[in-house]
């Protein structure tokens, strides 16, 4: 039946059924011819109405289901998270092709309801367009000014390491949970870059802020928050959402207080940190009568929030994995310590030492690879229609690069599922870079704090191994140390205790 005939029939009967049928015919006619012209969409499991492929997914470990599905549907496939179509990118070659060769096309962020309540599309991590560009540029240039990649942050880290050592010393070799001291130390690095000063570990205002932020990272990766992202109307019934909102409101109040304190003592000739720079820019835009300035309080608060959320849990979690792995593999720990003793001896390690510590460097890289703390990046979104490896991915589609499938890609790593520092060493024992080492992702949205994080990991790890020997608690064997991660937005080591025994 032609479109014209349908129209005539509709006009003659005028029934609702006719209208619906006509719409269906038009849809099939136009959607069919369009998709044939434009290319085929990625394959994927058949979705159910409303639920999509939710029943197929392990909501606690969706990345495992995606790896499984990839065996059937290939390196680019689509699933429906509820009614929302999502394209999954699998393996080093595919992820690299999309994020690096089509950086613009895959460079937007999909912002689901769970993240909108946190950022309201301001700041860096969950924003797009001009707002994202300007805040990312401003944060990067200020992070550089206040230390990142420079001597400044090296000094800040070295200062903080002494405090962390003091905390470890307090346990006198007895077993303890490393979570809080490591989180506080790492958070203080961002604090001194953002606010211009560090906090005492006994300051409840600081420790509660860090603990709340960590709780949010954990809860935002839970199965219930995944459901909330798909069906936001579930919100009022979900404890997880209530927890997140409560933590956000409390942390926001604290951050605003800190900003106000800095505002009262602001001196444009003597900037203490990122907040001062932002406030000075804000005042200058206000004085020149700029009405569309992006330098407003909401962007300031959200950017600070992003830097803390993205910069604390990630680095601290990786560091805790590294200590756990050392306790589990004492022969690797001994080799690291032997190298540190030979090359550095008893003096304070500095960034310059990295090139002379290939084994230690390889162990840190291998920790990041195996720990795979962000198995799936926060969702990306296509900024226009894009053809990738023969498939059409339409503008506005949410896209998940599966970083775990890159860091464990069988074609790139000799023993993808085991801890093997040799992945990063050549036959002569020199450090080698690996292209498939992408824990910081790649392309337009690549981690903004990569160089800071790398500096922190190197200095903290080397210093701690220089001073302590890490072992399981008495009565627990190395084999008993469990490497199964606790799932949140990042993959953390499951709760455990370690002994930090002073090296003589
Ligand atoms: C071991 C430590 C870290 C790891 C593994 C890590 C990893 C990542 C990953 C995978 C992303 C998402 C990239 C994407 O969407 O494709 C990201 C984004 C981001 N990271 Fe990191 N990160 C670490 C440390 C840091 C630190 C220390 C900071 C702060 C200075 C930071 C700030 C950010 C920000 C602001 C973004 C959002 C970038 C954007 O959307 O444009 N990260 N990070």
From TrEMBL:
PROSITE patterns: CYTOCHROME_P450. The chain crosses the membrane at residues 6-30. One of its GO terms (molecular function) is oxidoreductase activity, acting on paired donors, with incorporation or reduction of molecular oxygen, reduced flavin or flavoprotein as one donor, and incorporation of one atom of oxygen. Keywords: Endoplasmic reticulum, Heme, Iron, Membrane, Metal-binding, Microsome, Monooxygenase, Oxidoreductase, Transmembrane, Transmembrane helix. Coiled coil: none annotated. Its cofactor is heme. It is found in: Endoplasmic reticulum membrane; Microsome membrane. Heme binds at residue 447. It comes from the Eukaryota. One of its GO terms (cellular component) is endoplasmic reticulum membrane. One of its GO terms (biological process) is xenobiotic metabolic process. Its main location: endoplasmic reticulum. Belongs to the cytochrome P450 family. This is Cytochrome P450 2K1-like. It comes from Culter alburnus (Topmouth culter).
